[in-house]
Each structure stands twice: as C-alpha cells, then as structure tokens.
Input
Amino acid sequence: MGAVLDAYALIALLGDEPAAARVEDLLERGQATIAAINLAEALDVLERRERIPAEALREALEGLPLRILTAAEPEAWRAASLRARNYHRRRRPVSIADCFLLAAAEVGDAVATGDAALLDAARAEGIEVVDLR
Output
C-alpha cells in the first residue's frame, strides 16, 4: 500500500507536530507520494505561518523518500469530477487541491490526512485512509 499525503501530513512532519511520527512511519514503508498542489499548500503554510525559511524546507524535502506527482489535463478532469461529487459547503468542504490528491490515489493507496472533509470524501470514493487526527 502506498500513502498519498496531503498538506496536513507534510505540515505535521516538517512542523514537528503530533502526527509527525505517523507520517515518518508512512515514509519509511516506502511508496509515499504527494500531489504538487498539496506540496505547494504545505510549503506555503510552513513558510508563511510557521516562518520556516524556504531553503530549510527545500533541504528537508530533498532527504525524504517522497515522490511528487504533477497533474495534467486528465487529473484536472478527474479532480473536478471528484469535487462535484463530494463538495458541500457545510458538510464536506473538500478543497480542489485535495480533489487533486484523490485523483492521484491509485488502487491500493491510502490517503493520509487529518482533514475530516478529505477523510469523508476519500471514504465515499472507496479509497483507504490513514487518519492522522
């Protein structure tokens, strides 16, 4: 089983938050991926809110066994369809970035997140989850 990390997971790891140990375990198992859009979201939060310098983040990422997935037109169509099926403003405010993450998940992958809306959407799509809350 591969793990598809969302921004929450990477923020927990690089920000040394409580879920960091669980994320480290997922990385050690191998086959961990993150969609480029979720990577950008995590880097934004870590640099802007946590004040971690961009160079320190780049160095930390270079040492991680993490594959970064880029999106092309097919993933954009799939992400849009996933959001159309799963988004609800109050009950399930899943972001378009997280729908790209869902679109990147392959058979046998598990989405690793602490985001309740994303957990619900992944389950609704039949995708395994690793709840980091």
Q: What stands out?
A: The chain has a mean pLDDT of 95. Residues 3-131 form a domain with the Rossmann fold fold (CATH 3.40.50.1010).
